[in-house]
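agent> call fold_tool(seq_1)
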Amino acid sequence: MEYSAHRVRSKTRAAVKRREDDIVWDELESGELNLIPYLDMVTNLVLFLLASVTAGLILTQIDTTLPDRQTAPPATAQTPATNPDEQPLKLVASITRDRVILWSISGLEGTLAAPKLVFQRTGRDGEACDGPYMCESNSCDPVTQKCIPSRDEPAPVFDYRAINDAMFEIANRRYAGKQRKAETYQAILMADGAIPYSTIVAVMGAMRCKLPEFGKEATHCALPTEDPALKKAPSPVSPDGKLYDTSRATYDPKKMALFHDILFSSGFE
């Protein structure tokens, strides 16, 4: 008897189905479960995880965008009964493509209309430097201490030492030799959306602590802390000299933070 291809396939599928049913029934009667498919799944999953870790895959997304722009807030009047040196200055460093503007929302250290200081763009080839961060080319000759050309994309650079000197002058004039309030360490960094992160980081470094003298090694800068253990300790300064209780320690801007508590704000029009 001749069978068509369709009938042969149908009979084959029926035979396979009967065999599968027989196997399932045998497993149910014997009380055994076929774990091979599950083991295959677990093995494949483990291999995938191992491959992911080995390749260094990071399955996450970090949002590193700066806030949207907005107009600068107006200067706020301070309470006359309060000592100006005990009030937050709300110091602002506004970074544009060609300058950094230093002013304060409080009006105690200039305003946006009449800023305290303006720092023009610098760091061109041939100008003095003590590190790549001071050069638009991100390359500083360690022998001549001059900026030299490189293949890196030029980035805006400013006189970070002058910015640091201005921050030091404000902190020294207002707080040196006193117990400085914790809220006075706060400053605002307002960056234009086109400013690269390398420039932002360099400005932050100029705001945080006193920079070492030109060509000299940097020393550690002590930071204020709210650590309960240090507040109870006899000395307001930690044994390693890196932390201090600002409510008890006598402030020294040469060894302690200037404006390390930096808030990020949007650029301005």
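agent> call fold_tool(seq_2)
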Amino acid sequence: MSVIDLSQPLSDVLREGTKKAHEEVEVSPAASAMLKGELAKEEYVRFLMMLWHIYDTFERGLERHQNHPVLEPTYNPTLLARAPHLSADIAHLLGVTESQWKSHRIHAQLTANGTLPPALATYTARIQEIADSSDPSALLAHAYVRYLGDLSGGQTIQRALAKAYGLTMGGAGLSFYSFKELHSSKPASIGEMKKIKDWFRAGMNKGAGDNMDVKAAVMEEASRVFEFTGTIFKEVDRHRADAKSRVVFENKDDEPRSYPLASVISVILAICVAHFALTVFGFTGERGYEKLVMVEEWLAGLGGVRKPE
């Protein structure tokens, strides 16, 4: 492992120090499926729910420590906060209100018995540990990995998802990937997103200053965040591979359409009898028509109904 020069600005330290970890996450099967638009909609919604728990936890931590000297230069929830957008997207994709999605079957399964999947629980617990510590500087690593990822590769993912799920770029269901301009409320173009990233990097450099201990701690935590992200994708892969966990993406009322068994049996029996009669007796000519009417009346009787007069 190469030694990172901690005398560099923090943004350069992070770029060099997390390069390998970043590349490893990009080649995960779940990430590849998402980039190709091959992730089933229900699996994607479940993934968004996991992201919501992550963002909600660390954004609450950032809010709590917004005046910390390392975190203050990059704290701009109006520009960056993603948890509200995740909530809106989840609700839209499920066809429910934002107040309802946490009680939806998918989220209920995700949080069964009041616990999160191990990978997600470990990730959020680590964020909470930092937020509760005497030095929350490492929260900057979580903001760096997540926000700059959303502003970069997230835009490629958005295009794939828009095509796969029939959504509009930047519209409902994909607002998580949309940002406003740095100094206005207009939707940010790719060029404007680059300006946001440059602003964020400058803020990180200002917050860390020349403190090598802070740089080392943030770099170490950033590598850990990429590892956590990898475990989240592995959780997606595990769930996809578990046939017993797969269910059809249902309507918002969560009630799959079904038919009474008696009706199904009646239809099958009717088809069988009709095939037999057609094969043996035939229904041609005047006598054929009379036989057809007799069979029709008999079938109506089997179904417990009578032909309308």
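agent> summarizing second result for user.
The first helix runs from residue 10 to 17. The CA atoms of residues 7 and 212 lie 7 Å apart.
agent> awaiting next instruction.
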